[in-house]
Amino acid sequence: MLVGVISDTHDNVWAVRAAARVFAEKGVKLVLHLGDVVAPFTLRAFAEAGVKRLVAVYGNNCGERVGLRRVAESLGYEISDWPRYLELGGRRLVLIHGAGPTEDTVALAEALAASGRWDAVLYGHTHRVDNRRVGEALVLNPGEACGCLTGRRTAALLDLDALKAEVFEIQV
């Protein structure tokens, strides 16, 4: 099972559309958004780009939660507080956004991975790519889709069968 993973879109609808094209080309049926969608119109951009199923967690910049929830529900998407627990393709995943300084979010992701409870820990917030193993668990941050802090726009393809991720540059 191949899953699209994206984070920190911060209303960059051009990046959303470009990432959605890659997801469609690769046969992705589910997109996981790790927070900071920001505004409801960004969820509509995913739908307009052909994303049928999306599960997201709120980020620290998602101030319009009621509007985000309403639009998500109208599109058949899901958005919730983190942590969000999912079982997909026989794998146990935990989705978080993160909070505070980068090192605190990374430490939280590492602790969740080291617990042995999760096959994959997926997080956002730091705007930095992180694709590695902590013990047996995959730790994945696809980086920022918006390109606002690092100048790079990235997302990831997560192969649940192999439990490996490929981070790619979003070409806007």
Number of domains: 1
CATH topology group = Purple Acid Phosphatase, chain A, domain 2
User: CATH superfamily assignment?
Assistant: Metallo-dependent phosphatases
Tell me the strand order in the biggest sheet: 4-3-2-1-10-11
CATH secondary-structure class:
Alpha Beta
Structure description:
- With 172 residues, the protein is α/β, with parallel strands linked by helices.
- It has one domain (2-169): Purple Acid Phosphatase, chain A, domain 2 (4-Layer Sandwich).
- It contains four helices and eleven strands, in the order βαβαβαβββαβββββ.
- The strands form two sheets. Strands 4-3-2-1-10-11 form a six-stranded mixed beta sheet. Strands 5-6-7-9-8 form a five-stranded mixed beta sheet, covered by helices on one side.
- Helix 1 (13-25) packs parallel to helix 2 (40-48).
- The model has no long low-confidence stretch (mean pLDDT 97).
